[in-house]
Amino acid sequence: MELMSNAIVIPFHDLTFFLSSLFCLSLVGSITGFRLDLIHRDSPGSPLHDPNASSYDLFRQATLRSISRLQHFNSVFVEKSFSSKLKMIVTPIPSEYLMKVGIGTPARELQFLVDTGSDIVWTQCLPCTSCFNQTSPTFDPTKSSTYRKIGCSEPLCKYLQMPCTNDCQYLAAYADKTYTKGILSSDTFTFQDISANTKNIPSIKTGADALTSFEGIGFGCGDNNSKTFSATDGLVGLGGGPMSLISQLGNSINKTFSYCLAPSGSGKLSFGSDALISSSYIKSTPIFRLGDPTYYILYLQEISVGLNRIGIPSGFFDPNNPNGSKLVIDSGTPMNVLAQVVYDLLIQALREAIKHPATNDSGLCYKMETLGDLAEIPNMTFHFYGGADWIVFPENSFVEVFEGVVCLTTWSVASFSIFGSNVQRNMNVNYDLENEKLSFAPAQCNKI
């Protein structure tokens, strides 16, 4: 969606990783790591699941979600409607995966969209002036003994740079009339640790699982929200900016998290010591921020189709090249997106390598008798800086849009690029924000 020229954004200073002291963050129990289920939005465990949707319906919906996120990233990297200062915006762009979070004391379980492309943590709150429908009961702050409003003089509120005489308000407005606003607040966040049965953790047991709690997490308590949002209960930002859940947990999780995206069903989202990858196939590449810590930018040097490199111009994706293009790794954009110059090179290489008959569609689509024919399409390898080769198998780069027709899930735009969630499936991806490093290794994500 396109931002209005007078949309209210929320600037921050460069204080990404020591917010824990500002929030008076404390950990219930001596915990260094925990793991959660990561639920694909189209799977039966999701409130967004539509049992009547066909594979084509799901592809079309994923396409529309990708377009929404493309418009957002275009405003950041091309139109530069955000200044070079660190900023966070409450962005109602869709995402692909959900996690369960308990808020308050006693904890009220809610299901949130997870987004590595934003920082804010927010949910709807009572009393609600205007709220969208959600499957879980709306959070009631009066029923939580640990809820509090963040005061005007507190550093977190000052980051908003908005007038504050009583309650600290947040607000975002957009050209399509969507918005969310409410009171900046804090409360205890509780997570159900699905790995607790494999380790000794001093926390409250629930069957084979454990409840891992953190006090003083800052979040937006929205009491006036557009009714055009999805049926989920809010959003958890996993970006690198100060307001994200990762930054707020900070040293409690060693500034480390990982995810493993399953094609369907449940993947995994891990924090701290549970996020470490143990594999002989692990590869690593630097993470770049470029003045805005929210987005995770990688240095892509080359792409291979099979054994043949496509010939990306030297330094094209170098983050330190002021005239180069930027590539963001993003868990919330289903499709892969490449700058036009690189996309054209990739398409040429794929057309030379794929022997199946092409359709007349505008995209790169092919007729195949069975999905087993995908095995005849060569792998693509994304060569990231530092010798980190990410192999993308055909089942992650092509999708069946009609019976017997598969299409490439990579698009082109003029300048920037996105390494999307489809090509990340069945890869364990670790973000080490202390050392600014991304590591990855192949995995069966629904079996971890």
Describe this structure in words.
This protein has 448 residues and is mainly beta. Helix content is 12%, strand content 35%. It has 6 helices and 30 strands. The longest helix is centred in the first third of the chain and has 23 residues.
Offer a few descriptive terms.
disordered N terminus; single chain; 448 residues; 6-stranded mixed barrel; mainly beta; 4-stranded antiparallel β-sheet
Unreliably modeled segments: 1-30, 81-92, 197-208
Q: Helix/strand/pairing class, anyone?
A: mainly beta
In spatial order, strands of the major sheet run 5-6-13-7-12-10
Question: What is the total tally of β strands?
Answer: 30
Q: State the helical fraction.
A: 10-25%
Assess the beta-strand content as a share of residues.
25-35%
Mean pLDDT: 80
Global Rg: 22 Å
- The CA-CA distance between the termini, in Å, is 36 Å
Largest sheet report: 6 strands, mixed, barrel
Shape: globular
Number of helices: 6
SSE topology:
Blueprint: E1 10-12, H1 19-22, E2 26-28, E3 33-40, H2 55-77, E4 86-88, E5 97-103, E6 108-115, E7 121-124, E8 148-149, H3 155-160, E9 169-173, E10 179-193, E11 204-206, E12 209-225, E13 234-237, H4 245-249, E14 256-260, E15 266-272, E16 283-286, E17 297-298, E18 300-305, E19 308-309, E20 327-329, E21 336-339, H5 340-353, E22 365-367, E23 380-384, E24 388-392, H6 394-397, E25 398-402, E26 405-408, E27 410-413, E28 417-419, E29 427-432, E30 437-442
Parallel strand pairs: 6-13, 7-12, 20-28, 21-27
Antiparallel strand pairs: 1-4, 2-12, 3-5, 3-15, 5-6, 5-10, 7-13, 8-10, 9-10, 10-12, 11-12, 14-15, 14-29, 16-30, 17-20, 18-19, 18-23, 22-26, 23-24, 25-26, 29-30
